[in-house]
Design a protein that fits this description.
The complex is a heterodimer.
Chain A: H1 9-48, H2 54-58, H3 71-102, H4 107-119, H5 124-138, H6 145-169, H7 173-180, H8 186-215, H9 218-223, H10 243-251, H11 256-290
Helix pairs in contact in A: 1-11, 3-6, 3-8, 3-10, 4-6, 5-6, 6-8, 7-8, 8-11, 10-11
Chain B: H1 3-8, E1 11-22, E2 25-36, E3 40-44, H2 51-58, E4 68-76, E5 79-80, H3 88-94, E6 95-98, H4 109-119, H5 125-138, H6 142-145, H7 158-170, E7 176-180, H8 188-201, E8 206-210, H9 214-220, E9 223-228, E10 231-237, H10 238-243, H11 248-254
Parallel strand pairs in B: 3-8, 3-9, 6-7, 7-8
Antiparallel strand pairs in B: 1-2, 1-4, 4-5, 9-10
Classes of the chains: A mainly alpha, B alpha/beta.
The complex binds adenosine-5'-triphosphate and magnesium ion (MG).
Magnesium ion binds near residues 51, 52 and 180 of chain B.
């Protein structure tokens, strides 16, 4: 009886009440997000499920909604990612390595850093304007798959650089010291110690950035990706379309049957994004077990 | 531990009038010291007195800290290691280092040991196998891990990881081994194992260790150096320094009156 006698019951019950109210508030906050998302998903699935069949993947776009598919858009999106992935990986991770490992920590580096972080937040349409000026007109690459992929590379680069930098910065100093103390050069240390310790974080960032690019429409509209492509690009200089542009096109038509088609297109695109995000999680888990 | 044999050992490392500054902070003040080969030299002294700093001048790890300035001479086997004739990569191959916290790479046990030899151009599988086995045997870890060489180094216990780090340092065939409080993160049994290992290794390597543990210095070292505030206060055979220190400050420190 003695030890716990002096408890201030009233004060404790107040603390508990506060805890309970906040708990409820947090649940409410979470639910609103989830409910909104569920409503959106259900709505799209109900609209789109009817047109979700093989034709969607094997047919080219058509003026007749019943015959239209998004084959060229799906293939265009895949091609674009395949071109972007290696370019943005090499450029992005290379820049991150330079900034974290090689660059002197001086005013110029800080200025570059500030610029990159700012670029990561620039609206995507601005990259479209840039791509139009540099690639489409400047380098005369026209409205090609290559122009599109390079524009998208610019768009995702800042995000990749920043996330790769964070992953590299998180590598403990002791890992580098261990390598240097064995007589390694800078590059040997980066390659042998820093990258193996940070690769899961880097890859996660790259995949998430690429999945952002898959859903982007504005910059490609800007550089003039077509909305009606009834062929598959046979080279990187061919014209192309991608999934979000196809969906955008279908939605902007007056007929309801095209709207349902757009909904099935969204389902396909979302499944693709979810798959990419899952692979990012798997990658992260796979490597973080070793680290 | 016999002083008679130690007296016969030749000087390997010569430190003369060494001053080191971190920016404006004067971390090492006019240090003069000789370190004999194939013996264990212990650095003792209170925290912040510059033991690690001096240890890092021996493999030039201080070079990587911005704003470090160094004056004076550090020579090894007669060569000034700060002269332009000496490549820092070669120096660090000859002067291995073991850190306070075990710091294996996120790789297999095998690849951890093979890391150093690979850096220096050894590619042949059979040669690497041989080095891995030899180094692990020298670090008395072989029997514990020989069936798990492909496993991640992080699957080992802390004490095993530290012996792995010692094996990794030995794999590039150094002459000198620097140990900066290498047992301070370990349990007493692992500590004892590493102390025994040091006794083995000193037949082949020159060992310089930093320790906060007086008993450890007394048990394992041949000479002991006592530092205070960046200055070398006393340097003597371990037995002498602990039983009959000539400086009052040394006596106060080893008897626990400050520090
Ligand atoms: N990178 C650095 N930049 C600036 N000052 C430093 C740096 N490293 C060490 N110092 C300073 O130099 C002095 C000596 O540090 P050092 O690490 O050599 O001490 P130590 O004797 O090893 O101490 P401990 O026993 O705590 O490890 C300390 O006062 C420390 O604050
Ligand atoms: Mg220290």
């Amino acid at each position: 009886m003695s030890m716990f006698e002096d408890a201030n019951r009233k004060q404790i019950s107040n603390r508990r009440k506060k805890d309970l109210y906040l708990h409820l508030l947090f649940i409410a906050a979470t639910s609103i997000g989830i409910i909104a998302l569920m409503a959106l998903l259900i709505n799209i699935v109900l609209d789109g499920i009817g047109r979700l069949n093989l034709d969607l993947f094997t047919n080219y776009p058509s003026r007749v909604a019943e015959r239209a598919g998004m084959k060229s858009a799906i293939v265009g999106s895949i091609y674009m990612v395949l071109i972007m992935a290696p370019i943005s990986f090499v450029l992005g991770v290379g820049a991150a390595i330079y900034l974290e490992e090689y660059a002197k920590k001086n005013a110029i580096t800080r200025f570059i850093q500030l610029n990159i972080s700012t670029l990561a937040g620039v609206p995507s349409i601005v990259y479209g304007i840039l791509g139009l000026t540099i690639f489409v007109r400047g380098l005369s690459l026209d409205r090609s798959l290559l122009s599109g992929a390079l524009t998208m590379t610019l768009l995702v680069l800042p995000v990749i650089i920043v996330s790769a930098q964070e992953a590299i910065r998180a590598v403990p100093r002791a890992r580098r010291d261990a390598s240097f103390a064995l007589g390694a050069t800078k590059w040997q240390t980066v390659y042998g110690s820093v990258l193996p310790s940070s690769i899961s974080g880097i890859l996660t960032g790259v995949i998430l950035a690429l999945s952002r690019a898959i859903g982007e429409t504005a910059p490609l509209v800007m550089i003039g990706a077509l909305t009606f492509v009834a062929f598959l690009p046979s080279s990187i200089m061919d014209q192309f379309t991608v999934m979000p542009i196809q969906i955008f096109n279908w939605i902007s038509r007056p007929q309801v049957s095209f709207h349902d088609l757009a909904a099935s297109g969204i389902i396909v695109m979302m499944v693709m994004l979810v798959l990419m995000n899952i692979s990012a999680v798997i990658l992260r888990n796979k490597y973080s077990k070793q680290i | 531990m016999s002083t008679a044999t130690q007296a016969a050992n030749q000087t390997l490392i010569h430190i003369e009038q060494l001053n080191l500054y971190y920016g404006t902070y004067h971390a090492l003040k006019n240090v003069n010291l000789t370190i004999p080969e194939k013996a264990v030299t212990a650095f003792i002294g209170p925290s912040g007195c510059g033991k690690s700093t001096l240890l890092r001048t021996l493999n030039r790890m201080n070079d990587m800290i911005d704003g470090t300035r160094i004056e004076g001479l550090v020579s090894m086997g007669g060569t000034d290691i700060y002269s332009s004739d000496v490549d820092v990569e070669t120096l660090r191959k000859k002067v291995g280092m073991v850190f306070q916290q075990p710091n294996p790479f996120p790789k297999s046990i095998y690849d951890n040991i093979a890391y150093g030899p690979r850096l220096h151009g050894i590619k042949s599988k059979s040669q690497l196998d041989e080095i891995v086995e030899q180094s692990l045997k020298q670090a008395v870890l072989w029997d514990e891990v020989k069936d798990y060489l492909k496993r991640s180094a992080f699957s080992l216990s802390g004490g095993q990881q530290q012996r792995l780090c010692i094996a990794r340092a030995l794999a590039v065939n150094p002459d000198v081994l620097l140990m900066d409080e290498a047992t301070s993160a370990l349990d007493p049994i692992s500590t004892l194992k590493i102390e025994e290992l040091v006794q083995e290794l000193k037949n082949k390597y020159t060992i310089v260790m930093v320790t906060h543990n007086m008993q450890q210095a007394a048990r394992t070292s041949d000479q002991t150096v006592f530092f205070l505030n960046g200055e070398m206060v006393e340097f003597d055979q371990t037995e002498t320094l602990f039983s009959n220190p000539s400086d009052k400050r040394t006596e106060d420190y080893i008897t626990g009156r400050f520090g």
